[in-house]
Amino acid sequence: MFTFLGRRLLSTLPVLLIVAVLVFFMLRLTPGDPAALLAGDAANAEQIAQIRAGLGLDRSIPVQFGIWFGHLLTGDLGQSFYYKTPVTTLIGQRLEPTLSLTLVTITLAVLVAVPLGVLAAWRFGSLLDRVLMGFSVAGFSIPVFVLAYLLIWALSLQLGWLPVQGYKRIADGVGPWLYHLTLPAMTLSVIYIALIARVTRAAVLETLGEDYIRTARAKGLPENAVLMRHALANAAVPIITVIGIGIALLIGGVVVTESVYAIPGLGRLTVDAVLARDFPTIQGVILLFSFVYVLVNLLIDLSYVFFDPRIRY
Amino acid sequence: MVELKVVNAVNAEALSVEAASVHVQASAWQRVRRSTSVRIGGTVLLVLVAIALLAPWLGTVDPALFDPGSRDLLPGQFGEITTLDGEQLKHRFLMGSDSFGRDIHSRVIYGTQVSLIVGLFTAVVALVFGIGFGLCAGFLRWLDGPLMRVMDGLMAIPAVLIAIALVAMWKGSVPTVVVAIAIPEIPRVTRLVRSLVLSIREEPYVEAAISLGTPTWLIMVRHILPNCVAPLVVQGTFICASGILTEAILSFLGVGLPSDIPTWGNVMAEGRAQFNTYPHNIFFPGFFLALTVLAVNILGDGLRDTLDPKMAKRG
Question: Does the model's pTM come out above 0.80?
Answer without folding.
Answer: yes
